Amino acid sequence: MTLRSSLKKADELIPGWVALPWIKIRELVRSIVARVCVRVDEVVVSLDRKEVARVLVGEASRELSGVQLGTTELRAEAKLRRAGKGIRLIVGGGRSAKPDRQMIALLSNAYATRDALMSGRDATIDAMAQRLGVKRDYLSVQRRGVRTGSEN
Fold first, then answer.
1. I need a labelling partner for 81 at 20 to 30 A (CA). Which of 26, 55, 92, 141 fits?
2. Strands 33-38 and 42-48
3. Dihedral of the CA atoms 7, 8, 10, 16 (nearest 10)?
């Protein structure tokens, strides 16, 4: 087990992360996150280093069975702000300079596609694509853009 092999495994996980089913993402996050602490000025996420090693190097992590690795903390600046009658946690610098219009349009189309798919009006994605006058691949990409309600 080397740093190079761990980094290689981490690099392999990146492209597949988006395609992972939500339940696998949830299991992975729950296994490596030891604690989340929300403070007035920051959010601290403590990662279990032994679990991170298990995810990155698999069976080779058994060599660490007697070793106490502890945790690693990830810190992000955060502020509590009033939002109407409640309080909102703002992570990072707060607002971005301008909204990304392309991203807004993409998400809007993806949610419309999901809603059309979930309505059950069309028997197949092919039928829906034909009705909407778009290619099946376009709907598949839109479908991957947002999760359906049944996956939550």
1. 26
2. antiparallel
3. 160
Q: Tell me which residue of 113, 114, 139, 115 sits closest to 126, measured CA to CA.
A: 139
What are the boundaries of each domain within the chain?
A: 3-91, 101-151
| Single-letter code of the amino acid located at 27 | E
Tokens for 116, please give them: 């059309």
Contact criterion met (CB below 8 Å) for 43 and 67: no
Question: How far is 56 from 8, CA to CA, in rounded Å?
Answer: 9
Give the residue from 3, 55, 66 showing the smallest Cα distance to 24: 55
3-class SS of residue 136: helix
Q: Which pLDDT value is given to residue 56? A: 75
Structure confidence by residue, pLDDT tens digits, 68-90: 678 889 898 888 777 777 877 77
